[in-house]
Each structure stands twice: as C-alpha cells, then as structure tokens.
Design brief:
DNA/RNA_pol_sf; Alpha-Beta Plaits; EC 2.7.7.7; 6-stranded mixed sheet; DNA-directed DNA polymerase; 4 domains; 5-stranded antiparallel sheet; DNA-binding; globular; DNA binding; alpha+beta; DNA replication
DNA sequence: TCTGCCGGCGCG
DNA sequence: AAAGCGCGCCGGCAGA
C-alpha cells in the first residue's frame, strides 16, 4: 500500500519553515530533494500535492508514487457510505482545510516504525481502514492511486508548462480579427462587422456585447427571437444575422484568448495553467485561470515544441462509449468498438443506418436525450445494445428516485440536496399542486440525466487517470537523453520526455526528437495497460489518434492497422 | 464601487 | 442537425 511497509511503519517528515524534520530528527532543507530521491519506491503521503509536491519539484526532485490525503478523503467519504457517515464523516476532526496539516506541508514516507505523532498519520489510517471496508478494495485503491498520480502530473505540468509560440498566436489573432485600431484597440474586422450589423438593424449605437440591448434591437428590426444565442439566431433570415454571428465568433476569440490572454498567461514560451485534479464532481479535472481546458481549436497551431524537440499529441477515439461497453460488459458493443471507429461499428451491426445517426444515438444514450433526432434514435440503440443501455438506464432511474450511483472504480455521485428531497416529497403528497408535481418531475429528470451521465463520464475520467499514471511511469523509464535545454521549465524536465497537457481524453508529451517513436510507443502501451487495469481481460480496446508536432509543422502518423 | 448572478460560448 | 451531461471565463447588469 505504501510502497514499503504499511501504515504502522511510517516516518513523518515536516517541511514547515526552513527546516525539514523526519520524525523528531531535523533534516536540512537543502537535503529534502535528496531524501526523496533516495527513496524511489516509496509512496509518499501528504495532505495536499499542490503544496508538498510543488516544493519538492522546485527543489529539483520528483517522486514516483503518492497518496494525496485531501483528494483521497474526498473520494472515500462517500465511496463506502454515500451519506458520508462513518469514520471519515464530516464530524471528523480532519478535513480539507485542517490548517495543522496543510500549513505545515507534512508528508509521510514509508520507513521503519516511527510513532504516528501526527494527524496525517491518523488520517491515513482512517483512510486505509475505509478502503478495507469497501466492497471492492482493489478497485477503490486503483482509483485512489490514480487520483494521487494525477495530482503529481498536474503539478509537473504546471511547472513544465505547455510550449506555446506567442508569435503564432499573434499571427492567428491578426489574421482572424485584423489589426487593432491604435485609438480604440478594437480589431479592424470586428469594427467592420459591427458596422454591418448596426446598419442592417437600423440602429447605429446598439452595443452588440450586451445581450439585453442586442435582443431589443433585434426585435425592433422584426427578428422574432427569445434570446441572442447562436443556435437560435442561425435560423433567422435577416441580413444582420450573418455578420452578427461572425462578430460573436470574433468577439469570443478576442475576449477569451486575445492579446490580453497572451500577455497574462504566456511567459518564456510556456502556458502554465493551474490544473485542479478531481475538480469536477464526476472526477474529471478542472482548471483555474487561463481557461486551460477551453483553448479553442483555432489556436492549437500555437502549441509548438522547442527546437530539437517534438510534441506527441494523442487522444482516445470515443472514450465514453468504450468505457460504457467495458463497465457494462456488453460484448456486442465491445465488438462494434473494435478497430478505430465505434460509430462505424454500430452502423455495420445494423443498429442505425449512418455514422451520424450512430453518433447522435450514442450521445443521446449517455446524456439522456428524450426529444429531437437524438432522442428518437436512442430506442434503436437500446434494442441493439440492451446490456449497455440497461446500465445507463438503471443509473438514470436510480437518480430520478433520489438514489445515488457509483463509477466503475467506486467514486460516488453526490446525493440529492435538501431542496430536491423537499420538492420530491411535496409532489408525492396527496393532492399536491400540479405545478409542484411538474417541477418535481423536471427535477427528477434532471437528476436522472445527471446520474446517467455520471457513471460514464466518471468512469472515463478513471480510465484517463490510469492512462496518465501508466504513461508517466513509462516516460520515466525512458530516462533522459541529449543535452539540457536552455529554458526555464526546471531542471527536472530539462533532458527527459514529460507530460505537458491533459484534457479529459487527450495528452501531450514534450520530448527530444530522437525519442519521438519511443514516446509514441509509451503512449500506446499506457492506453493498453489502462484498459487492462480497468476492465481486465474484457475485450474492449482504446485506439488512439496520435500526431507528432515538429518545430516546423505537424507530421501525422499513419493510423495503426 | 463592489459583489454576485446570468447569458453566452469555448472545451470534452 | 439539435438542445441531452460536465466544466471556466467573460462582460453586462442589478442590487447592495
């Protein structure tokens, strides 16, 4: 569990202040990295990776394995008992914000028979007991290890940064938006489009960036819409619409990822977002600052490796339906998923007639669509893949009834809140107001769609964590090559391939050019290993689309046969 | 002037 | 072609 020994043989290291202490024995701060390096097989335990591991990285060292008490606690509190009672319940002394843990940056190493003098050790013991009481400790442990490995990767990627070419970014901005006016700062193309829109609306002052004002101007011009959102405007036959939609597209780029973003977020050729592992309720990562998870496709060309290096960019095709096939053990869906394109497989099986239909049917099945084309196609999918569909349908009905669901590895969806329960019981009472019944039905439907999607999105996030952890270990095994680069991404990454980006089902690895093939193989092998770890021998595969980004352009790799 | 909410849209 | 899940971020705006 802890790499070496068990919860009883722990050594406590205190990184507070200038001194580093091991048990009651002080370690010089400068030796912290050496302490870590000297124990390559240890699973390090600490309250918060963003504090403890960040300082270790800055000191020039890395660790192979970790146990992040804060992240693990969040999972464990509801993994065994969804109501959050029990040894890790909210009444417990140790919580996410316990200052005695976080502020001291404690960490624990596998060592010999040190007394558990610290709360972190007590917390770790509670967590290990909780894992042991789970229905499937092996799966839950895999999740906790994966979550913690993710926290390591998040810190490493933050330090290394995503190689970002500001010149390419600026060129895309001026090509798309035009030159900025020296007087107002408004890009030329946007100003022209705004003029066209105002002329077509017969209103030369309306602020296009204010939805209420724009809506009134649209109505005055005879355009009957209830909102100014794109999907509604697109249907309207009016000369103002086309330039307006284009204006909105450009305004979005300017506001979200324009010159100001570049100025604020890109330094020394690196974009350094803060990743938040487990930040999404389903277990997906969130990000904080810089919109790391929302970089528009248009700006992807700005991702460029250093000279002599490459970026290996890999993503999984149709991760969520593959995961659904695996967790439901639906052999027919797994058969459709064999090869590169699951949607084509569904067409070949005769469930629907076109790839587009297959796509909408699958998305509808996972999101709970009830209307439209997507909603109409779902029943056909249900007939063709009853095993997989039963799993998501059951998850939906559990949610509608106020129950909860869990991912494949055991992350629990939150229970309904008090408001939801009150509404449900009010609607269930004799002679309830039809309006209340209607609201309750809608709330039940919302929750059903949430729990339906939760098990799939959450399990996909678990697969991705396994992939990330496996890949990280394989990259480390490749070792270092070549001369150190002259940049500021930190000695730790100067000569070895390292992860620089992760987005739900995609990773990027920055690597010396001569290691490109080895990295590509590592990414593929990691995906294979992640599938095995999650689903054992069940025959579901996770094919990757891999491209290698060179300094002077992209070299697409042939898809494997 | 500050704070929190909302519409809208980028990503998966 | 369509409105079903999960996010973060921005500007506008209403209320404090």
């Amino acid at each position: 569990m802890l790499g070496r020994g068990d919860a009883g043989s722990l050594e406590l290291v205190d990184l507070s202040g200038d001194g580093v202490e091991s048990g009651r024995r002080p370690w010089p701060a400068a030796d912290a990295a050496a302490v870590v390096t000297a124990r390559p097989d240890t699973r390090w335990v600490w309250a918060d990776s963003a504090r403890a591991y960040r300082s270790i990285l800055r000191a020039g060292s890395r660790v192979a394995r970790a146990w992040d008490l804060r992240l693990c606690r969040r999972i464990l509190r509801t993994a065994v008992d969804p109501a959050g009672r029990g040894p890790l319940g909210p009444a417990d002394a140790w919580d996410d914000t316990a200052p005695s843990i976080e502020d001291e940056g404690l960490f624990v190493v596998g060592a010999q028979d040190e007394p558990s003098v610290d709360e972190a050790v007590a917390e770790l013991r509670r967590q290990l007991r909780t894992v042991a009481s789970a229905p499937d400790p092996t799966r839950l442990t895999l999740l906790l290890h994966g979550e913690s490995a993710g926290a390591l990767v998040a810190e490493e990627m933050h330090l290394a940064g995503l190689p970002w070419d500001a010149q390419v970014h600026e060129r895309i901005l001026t090509d798309t938006l035009g030159q900025r006016s020296p007087a107002s700062g408004v890009p030329e193309r946007m100003a022209e489009l705004a003029d066209h829109v105002r002329a077509a609306l017969g209103d030369d002052t309306v602020n296009l960036d204010s939805p209420p004002k724009l809506l009134r101007a649209l109505r005055r011009a005879g355009i009957q819409v209830a909102s100014t959102s794109r999907w509604e405007l697109a249907d309207q036959p009016h000369p103002a619409i086309e330039p307006l939609l284009e204006y909105k597209r450009l305004a979005r780029l300017l506001v979200a990822n324009g010159w100001a973003w570049l100025q604020e977020w890109v330094r020394d050729g690196r974009f350094r977002p803060v990743y938040v592992p487990g930040g999404v309720v389903t277990g997906r990562w969130a990000s904080s600052g810089g919109g790391a998870l929302q970089i528009p496709r248009l700006l992807r060309p700005a991702v460029r490796p250093d000279r002599g290096w490459v970026i290996v960019d890999a993503d999984v095709a149709q991760l969520e339906p593959r995961v659904l096939a695996g967790m439901s053990r639906d052999l027919r869906m797994a058969e459709a998923a064999r090869g590169r394109d699951l949607y084509a497989g569904i067409v070949a099986a005769g469930a629907v007639s076109t790839r587009e239909e297959a796509k909408y049917a699958v998305l509808g099945a996972m999101y709970g669509a009830t209307t439209g084309q997507s909603g109409r196609l779902v029943p056909r999918l249900r007939r063709a893949y009853p095993v997989a569909m039963r799993l998501v349908d059951d998850a939906a009905s559990a949610g509608e009834d106020g129950g909860t669901v869990q991912t494949w590895l055991g992350r629990a969806a939150p229970q309904p809140d008090a408001e939801w329960l009150d509404l449900a019981s009010a609607a269930g009472a004799e002679g309830a107001d039809p309006l209340v019944r209607d609201r309750a039905r809608r709330a039940a439907g919302d929750r059903g769609r949430f729990t339906r999607n939760f098990i799939v999105q959450g399990t996909a996030a678990e697969w991705a964590l396994c992939w990330l952890a496996e890949l990280r270990a394989r990259l480390d095994a490749l070792g270092a090559v070549g001369a150190p680069r002259a940049d500021r991404s930190g000695e730790v990454f100067a000569t070895r391939p390292h992860l620089v980006f992760f987005l739900h089902d995609e990773v990027m690895v920055h690597a010396p050019r001569e290691m490109a093939d080895a990295v590509r193989a590592a990414v593929e092998a990691a995906a294979e290993a992640a599938g095995r770890r999650m689903f054992g021998s069940f025959p579901i595969d996770f094919p990757l689309d891999v491209r290698v980004i060179e300094t002077d352009g992209v070299t697409p790799h042939d898809p494997p046969g």
